[in-house]
Design brief:
Layout: E1 5-7, H1 8-11, E2 16-17, E3 41-43, H2 44-58, E4 62-68, H3 73-83, H4 92-95, H5 103-106, E5 121-128, H6 157-172, E6 175-178, E7 181-187, E8 195-197, E9 213-215
Parallel strand pairs: 2-4
Antiparallel strand pairs: 1-3, 4-5, 5-7, 6-7, 8-9
Length: about 230
């Protein structure tokens, strides 16, 4: 792993995570290239800011659950190849009910160059410390639909309140929100604003390629989805 990166749980004790792209529970319907372990990785600056966010959440009776952090460029390339494959309907109802695969990119839900690959963007939600249950947010991770926008009408008062809580916590901790996805936040002063990394997420001792960086103007080599 690049020396400026770390596993978030090692620097932010007590934080919860479920790395969706390391599992079958994501919009592609299978583990994604570059995710060799169910762990969340980010820059050390991201980890420090998440530590502040965790404290802010706790003061309101919440904890943080992370879904994604650093995302290898090869994973983004995998998303692009997946979007060009014929529709099989396996994940459409849950993740993109009202648009086609290619529209994910046109509408800003998925990017060919993702801020996640710079290492200081995170997808996350809140959970209740008293019960451990996820806070109601009016839709789950990667629901690519207008209901996921911060200002979406039609969600309940509780769901809107929980979204505001998350936004306030993250704003106070140095993050900017993204209008189209209530769960997506980027560190304002990210340490690598122009660099897109491509080292795989792997636990120590697991076989993995050496770290690599992908310059903004380059394209990483394509590998089969799930390979």
């Amino acid at each position: 792993m690049n020396g400026d990166f770390a596993f978030v749980d090692e620097l932010v004790p007590g934080i919860r995570w479920d790395a969706k792209y390391a599992t079958w529970d994501n919009f592609t319907g299978k583990p994604v290239d570059g995710y060799l372990a169910n762990r969340i990785v980010g820059t050390k600056a991201l980890c420090a800011a998440l530590g502040r966010a965790e404290e802010g959440a706790e003061s309101l009776g919440f904890g943080l659950l992370l879904w994604d952090g650093y995302r290898p460029q090869r994973a983004v390339d995998c998303f692009l190849r997946w979007s060009r494959q014929p529709e099989d309907g396996l994940t459409k109802a849950r993740h993109y009910p009202n648009i086609g695969r290619a529209e994910m990119f046109d509408r800003g839900y998925v990017a060919v160059r993702s801020g996640h690959s710079r290492g200081s963007t995170v997808d996350l939600t809140l959970y209740h410390l008293t019960t451990g249950e996820l806070a109601a947010m009016g839709g789950g991770h990667d629901l690519m639909d207008a209901v996921s926008h911060h200002d979406a009408p039609g969600i309940s008062r509780v769901e809107a309140s929980n979204r505001r809580h998350l936004r306030s916590i993250m704003d106070a901790s140095g993050f900017d929100s993204y209008d189209c996805e209530w769960w997506h936040y980027t560190l304002r002063d990210e340490p690598h604003p122009d660099t897109y990394f491509d080292f795989p997420i792997a636990c120590p001792g697991e076989r993995a390629e050496l770290p690599a960086r992908v310059a903004a103007e380059s394209t990483s080599a394509a590998v089969p989805c799930g390979g």
